[in-house]
Design brief:
Elements lengths: L7 H6 L10 H4 L3 H16 L9
Length: about 55
């Protein structure tokens, strides 16, 4: 699937219930894709599309 900050369905799969980015071991993706995921999640957070934290 395409890694993009606008693709929230994909990004939510790689965040925990508390909106933290899951580790590479838990997601099973390679290091390059993990970096792209982290960048996309952080970009979506700054644009207000994803929360920084959840209670």
């Amino acid at each position: 699937e395409q890694i993009d900050f606008k693709n929230l369905g994909v990004l939510r799969k790689f965040t925990s219930g508390l909106a933290k980015i899951r580790a590479k071991k838990r997601t099973g993706v390679c290091a390059g894709h993990q970096r792209k995921l982290a960048t996309a999640i952080k970009r979506a957070r700054h644009l207000g599309l994803l929360p920084f934290t959840m209670k």
